[in-house]
Structures are given as structure tokens and as C-alpha cells.
Amino acid sequence: MATAAIQVPPSNKILPGSRLLATVPYPQVTESTLPTDPGKVASDWITSFNRLINHGDSAFSSLFLKESCWRDLLCLTWDFHTLQGPEEIAASIGHFAKECRIKCINLDTSSDHKKPKIASADFAGNMKAVQAFLEVETDVGKGKGLVRLLPDSEDGQRWKAFTLLTTLQELKGYEESTNRRRPTGVESDLDNGRRNWKDLRIAEENFEGDREPVVLILGIVDLPVRDGNRELTLLNRRCGTSGSELGCTTEAARSGHLNHRPKSSRWRQLAKSIPPTSAS
Question: How far is it, in rounded angstroms, from Cα 68 to Cα 74?
Fold first, then answer.
């Protein structure tokens, strides 16, 4: 008799570099233990992290709670890692000592909501922690991260990592052409041999001027329209109807009628902004 295939819930599917983590109880945190200066707590932890990460020191485990988890995406090595518990984390850092690429981490203070603050550390919002967004520096690129810190009641209320995420975002020397690095196209009629941005794009696609592909990627999947333009930038090729022919002036890139919907950071700028003239 045929049996129906068992459907595995997405939450239980093991992806590359992932595993099912052991269930652990949440640490007990009271309101009285929360700091008045989350920034100092985060800065002190980061200072200790940077001091110990490059030495493979066994003391590195003292930065993490016994219930801790570290999810890393390509910042430690060219692989995904899910590490649980201070012993495993310290052992892995010691194992990766010669190839560990993380050089340092720093606080990401690029916006107010990323600055260290008191935030929920569980789904129900019952447990509060010091949350800080991170900037990660590796020997090959830069990344982002997030850490949630809790006091360790078994170690004199010392603040330690409960969860840590590190993820590589870009490679040095191969940064995405976004924001201020976007191509500007023709800035005047005399520039670039009077070739507009579309002509330049066609020249790129045809590898004119003795240009050669840097990377050949096989097996790319179809992407939503909103992501196609990013892949076009990364792969230097057209990926379906991805809006690759969109462009905007510098002024349009910096402002718009929908202030809560910023313009794409990857749209090509078609012209320099013209400063307003003063009234005569």
C-alpha cells in the first residue's frame, strides 16, 4: 500500500550550514538588571570581542551565555555556520584561527534605530536585552551583524551575547554600484564620446574595448522584478524584464513625491543636478 510523502515544516528543514538547535530555556532577566546606558554595554562587549577574536583564546567563550547561538554567513570562512553554546563557539574560533577572516566589529550608528537600545529578545516580548547593530570588517570584505546581550546571573551579571548574527555583504574592490557609487551616464554632451547611458550599457553587454567577464555564474534562478536590477548590477548581464532601463536624474534620486518610498539606490543617474538660480 502506497504511503503519502511526509511534509516537513519549513522551520524543520535543514539548509546548508544550518542544523536543528537544541531547545534551551530563556535566561532570567529582571527589569532591575537592565542598564541605563545600552551603548556602553555594547561598546564594552565589542571591545572584548575584538581583543579575543584574532587570538583564538579560550577566554573567548566568556563572551557568550551558555544558551547562546552564533549564526555566521561567510564572515568566518567561505561557509555558513551555526554555533551553539560558548564551548562550541570557542572551539570553532580556535579551529578557524588560521583562516578566520573577521578582523573586527564596530557599532553601526548610521541611523537612530540601529543604535544600541533595550529591545525584546524573545518572540513574546517578555525578555528584554541590549540590542546593537554591527558593522563587520573581514580581510576580504565588509558585512553587517546584530547582537543581543543579556546579563549572566552566574557570572556577576556580566553582559554576554545571547544571539549573534554576522553576514558578509560585499567584497573589497568589488563593491556594488549603489548610492554615491552609481554610474552617472552622460554628464554633458561632450563626455564619453556623446554616448548616452544606454549606449554605454550596450557596450558593457557586448564586452567592447577588450573587456572580459570577471565571473561566470551558472544556475541563477528567476528573481522578482524588484530584485532583478540588483542582480543585473552584480552579474553585469540582463536578467529578464528587471527594470534595467530605468534611470533618474540626481534630483529625482534624492527626493520624490513618496517620501516613505525612497528611490532605488541602483538606478542610474542620467544627469547632474542643476543648482537653482537665484531670483533676479
Answer: 19
